[in-house]
Amino acid sequence: MDAGCINELVALAEGKGLRKARKVAAEALGISPGKTSITNGCALTLSHMLQQAGANIPLIDNSGRLAKHLEKDRNWKRVAVGDHQRGDVGVTYDNGGVDGADHIFLVLEVLGNDEVLTADNQDVEPHPRSLKEVGTYTETEYFLRACS
User: What's the per-residue H, E or C state across the chain?
Assistant: First the structure.
């Protein structure tokens, strides 16, 4: 259903699509889009990028709900950490009571088993992210992959 959108999603995230999605997330949350990190904006950022890429999904403001929507309603399949690839969506553990996940992000490049280049609400440009719990990063529980 959404597999045909993944190349466009990644291209958007590597270009101006990330900035546009972060602006939408910031406006929805009532905060300045100029901030480096848009707190609590990961699901809004990713769902807007998915919309820009052609996926017919609503704007979703919660990482756990977006993960459930992709898996249950859009038939994305779970992929184990270590089997992830470009275009997959990372879903972290719920350490803070955020309805199933503390964070959700798009993988742009696999840098190693424990690190990826990601596009999300946490920076205006793609940036490296550890998949383990390091500093403020919650450990990645699994990935989601769009199916044909």
Answer: CCHHHHHHHHHHHHCCHHHHHHHHHHHHHCCCCCCCCCCCCHHHHHHHHHHHCCCCCCCCCCHHHHHHHHHHHCCCEEECCCCCCCCCEEEECCCCCCCCCCCEEEEEEEEECCEEEEECCCCCCCEEEECCCECCECCEEEEEECCC
Please answer whether residues 29 and 38 qualify as being in contact, where contact means their C-beta atoms are separated by less than 8 angstroms: yes
Question: pLDDT tier at 99 (50, 70, 90 boundaries)?
Answer: low
Query: What is the overall mean pLDDT for the chain?
Result: 92
Instruction: Calculate helix-pair angle for 42-52, 17-29, nearest 10 degrees.
Output: 130
Q: What is the token pair recorded at 73? A: 């309603």
- Residue 97 pLDDT: 67
Give me 112's structure tokens. Answer: 């190693």
Rounded Cα gap, residues 28 and 40, in angstroms: 11
The pTM score is: 0.94
- β-pairing, 115-119 vs 127-130, is antiparallel
